[in-house]
Design brief:
This protein is mainly α. The chain has one domain. The chain has one helix at 2-96. It starts with a helix and ends in a 34-residue tail after the last helix.
Length: 130
């Protein structure tokens, strides 16, 4: 019976040792898990912060580009307005210009010869013939 009691005590001690070892392993595993979890959380937070910084940088870049584009648009709109004003003025000038057609001067050879009645050919009033 003593042997059985001794065997029982040894088994209980082994069981107690196994429980202690299991608890230590569990604590070690939990500590490793917590450390790994904190590492992953830190990496995740860093990634979130990096993305936030990148997005803010992109937003600032887009705002700057938008402002530049707005300034260019204003300048182009002003230039377009000026060009339209000039075109309108030139169009009005073109409308105001009257095309005057001059009758072509007849060639001397094509002029009809007028003969004055009762005039002598040798008289001094030759200028009146034409």
């Amino acid at each position: 019976m003593a042997e059985i009691l001794q065997k029982k005590m040894e088994l209980e001690n082994e069981l107690e040792q196994t429980k202690i070892q299991d608890e230590q392993k569990s604590k070690e595993w939990e500590a490793a898990f917590e450390a790994r979890l904190k590492s992953v959380q830190n990496d995740y937070q860093k990634e979130i912060e990096n993305r936030r910084v990148q997005e803010e940088s992109q937003i600032e870049t887009l705002k700057r580009i938008n402002e530049e584009d707005e300034q260019k648009l204003k300048a182009l709109t002003k230039t377009l307005g000026e060009l339209q004003t000039v075109v309108a003025a030139k169009t009005q000038e073109m409308k105001d210009i009257k095309i005057v057609t001059h009758e072509p001067k007849p060639n001397f050879c094509q002029q009809s010869i007028k003969i004055a009645e009762n005039k002598l050919i040798g008289s001094s009033d030759i200028g009146e013939l034409f």
